[in-house]
Structure formats: C-alpha cells, structure tokens
Specification:
With about 350 residues, this protein is of the alpha/beta class. It has two domains: about 190 residues, 3-Layer(aba) Sandwich (D-Maltodextrin-Binding Protein, domain 2); about 150 residues, Periplasmic binding protein-like II (D-Maltodextrin-Binding Protein, domain 2, 3-Layer(aba) Sandwich), CATH 3.40.190. The chain is built from 13 helices and twelve strands. The strands form three sheets. Strands 1, 2, 3, 4, 5, 11 and 12 form a seven-stranded mixed sheet that branches. Strand 1, helix 3 and strand 2 form a beta-alpha-beta unit. Helix 1 runs antiparallel to helix 2, helix 6 packs across helix 7 and helix 6 packs across helix 13. It is globular. The termini are far apart. The N terminus is likely disordered.
C-alpha cells in the first residue's frame, strides 16, 4: 500500500478519535496528508467527498486497476464541510472532483462559480431533476433518509415509523441526531419540514415550531456519524435519523441498528458529482466523472457499497436484492428543492441561534 494512502487512513482514524478538537483544524491536517506526493510518476486525482471510506476505497482501487497511471486521493468529510472547503479554496483549488452531496448544496456551489460545466456520457440517462440546466453537476446516486433505532432495545413495530412519531413523549431524551450544520442528510430532513410549512401555511413558523419540539426530544447532536452510531449502539439514545446506505453497511457488520422508511414519505436526495472549477487535473477529473457514472461503476457501487443509482436506464433486475426491496418500500416525499437550496443556509443559521439545545 502506498505511503500516502497509509498516512491518509491513519489521519482519518485519528479524526474519528478526536472529534472534539475542531473540524477546521482537523480537516486541514488531513488535507496535508491527502496531498502528500508519492513520487511514483502517476497523475494525482483529488476527490473531496462525504461518501466514507467504504465507497471511496472501492472507487480508488477499481479505478486505479483500470487506469494505473492515475493516483486517486480523497478527503472524506461532511457534505457541508466539502462545500465550505471548496469555497475557501476557490482562488487556489486543490480538489479535482466534488464527489457527493445533496444537489441543494451543489446548487449553491454552482451559483458561486465553484463548478465547471461538463456533460458526462451518461447524462441523458438521468431524470431531468437530477441534471443541472447548465451541466454544472449531475445526480449520481439517490440517498434516502430513514428513521433509525437500536434493534436490541426496540422492535420494528415499537420504533418510530413516521416523522410525527419522533415527537411522541416516549422518545424524549432518546433521540440522538447528527449535527445538521455539517450534514447534508440532516439539512435535507430539516429543509423538508420547513418547506412543507411554507407550502401549507405560507411561512416557516409551523416548521420551526416542529423543529423546536424535536429539539426538546433530542438528547445530543453528534459531531460525526461514527460518534452517532457509537452512542446509539451503547443505548445512550435509541432513535435517530440517518441515511439508508450507512444503515445497510452497519447491518452487514452485525451492528444492532435497524430502520423504518417513513410512511408519509421521505425526501429522495439527488447525490451529485461535479468538476471543480480550476481543477489542477481537469482532463483526469472528467475521465473519472465519466467512469463513476458508467453502468459498470454504478452496479459495482450498488452491489458492494449500497448505493442506489440515479440513472433510470439500468434494468431493475440487475440491481442487488437490497436495492429492489428498498425501491418497493420507499415512499418519495414531495419536496420544494429549489426553496430548500435557496433558503437552507438562512434556515439552519436561525435553527442554530434560536432552537438548538433550548429544549
């Protein structure tokens, strides 16, 4: 294994162990490690991504086997943190590919000139909603928020089965949530609540009241997913909201966490990819984006990393069993994605100022 990869994985583990030391300082340390040169003559390709080591190592290994002259390097952090870093580096970009995150966050990057137009060969196989009108980013996977519970403590029938169930008195002090300021998944869930409030009442008052009630139920906001899972496994809390992919990985490893798909509907996140404007290696970045959305790479990600493809031209019978079962159970929620993209930052700032921890 290459020295740079060893350093990178060591630092990732260190980040998980030292979640209290500050995200900016810690991720800066990790960035230095990611960009360490190998000196082996290969062209580096740097990905900023929230996808986690399982998928990133799979994509790195598979891509390098097919293109041995490319050295894939990646920095794994939250969706919001990826956006913040690419934005802060805009005058001197370090990343080549923005690999993953809700399209609502990508839309802000597009508006701020952080992305370069590129039309991958698979773009015509996407639903229109997953394709930016100026080809600045494209949906790659579909991410699905679910209601999570500790399966050692609760049965499927006892656990929350819809969003309103989270407000039941029995879950007071039993809910642990990933800090939504850094999480695209949680921003999307909160955005769904607030956009529905606007649609149904004309403003966000009812939505913020719902979130305030949820805050009163919430015991803790975990600073990273690893800590969230650890707390749930130890039964420091019994219930959460998170994304389907991680739940499937954890179940595969025997972790006592299970989930319910919300019965009234869940927001289906278009998990996107884009070419960073000013990429140090734009030709190599375009080639990677073209490959990662190919039929081969999407089916590999579905089979080994629990990703639902965004493309609509893949035969359902070619998808793994877990994906076919999920598609049978998921109820897509009606969501005003444009409103969420436009207002998410302001909404989350207000939530942080006026609601967080006040229950």
């Amino acid at each position: 294994m290459r020295i740079a990869n060893r350093l990178r994985r060591l630092v990732v583990r260190r980040l998980e162990e030292t979640h209290g030391m500050g995200v900016l300082w810690a991720s800066s340390w990790l960035l230095v490690m990611v960009l360490v040169g190998c000196g082996d003559g290969r062209t580096p390709l740097v990905l900023y991504s929230p996808h986690g080591r399982d998928l990133l190592e799979l994509m790195e290994r598979t891509y390098e086997e097919q293109w041995p002259d490319i050295d894939v390097r990646w920095l794994d952090m939250g969706s919001q943190e990826v956006y913040d870093r690419i934005r802060s580096e805009a005058v001197n970009p370090q990343a080549d590919v923005w690999f993953g995150g809700p399209d609502t966050i990508f839309s802000r990057g597009a508006e701020e000139g952080l992305l370069e137009p590129f039309v991958p060969s698979w773009a015509d196989s996407l639903p229109p909603a997953s394709r930016h009108p100026d080809e600045l980013y494209h949906g790659l996977y579909e991410a699905v928020p679910v209601l999570v519970y500790n399966s050692d403590a609760l049965t499927r029938e006892e656990a929350p089965r819809d969003w309103e169930d989270l407000l039941d008195e029995r879950w007071k002090g039993e809910i642990i949530i990933r800090d939504p300021l850094a999480s695209g998944t949680m921003r999307t869930a909160f955005g769904m609540v607030l956009s529905r409030s606007v649609s149904e009442t004309g403003d966000t008052a009812a939505g913020f009241e719902w979130l305030a009630r949820l805050d009163r139920q919430t015991k803790d906001y975990a600073v990273n997913p690893a800590l969230l899972f650890e707390k749930l496994i130890r039964q420091e809390g019994l219930v959460s909201i998170w994304e389907l992919t991680d739940m499937l990985f954890l179940q595969q490893r025997g972790v006592p966490l299970d989930y319910n798909f919300p019965t009234s509907g869940t927001p289906i996140i278009s998990d996107s990819i884009g070419l960073v404007r000013g990429s140090p290696h734009p030709q190599e970045a375009r080639a990677f984006i073209d490959w990662v959305g190919s039929r081969q790479a999407l089916l590999l990600a579905a089979q080994e990393a629990f990703r639902l493809p965004a493309r609509v031209d893949l035969p359902r019978e070619e998808l793994p069993e877990w994906a076919q079962e999920a598609l049978d159970q998921i109820v897509p929620a009606t969501v005003d994605w444009k409103l969420i993209a436009a207002e998410s930052n302001a909404w989350m700032s207000r939530w942080d100022r006026e609601i967080r921890g006040r229950g």
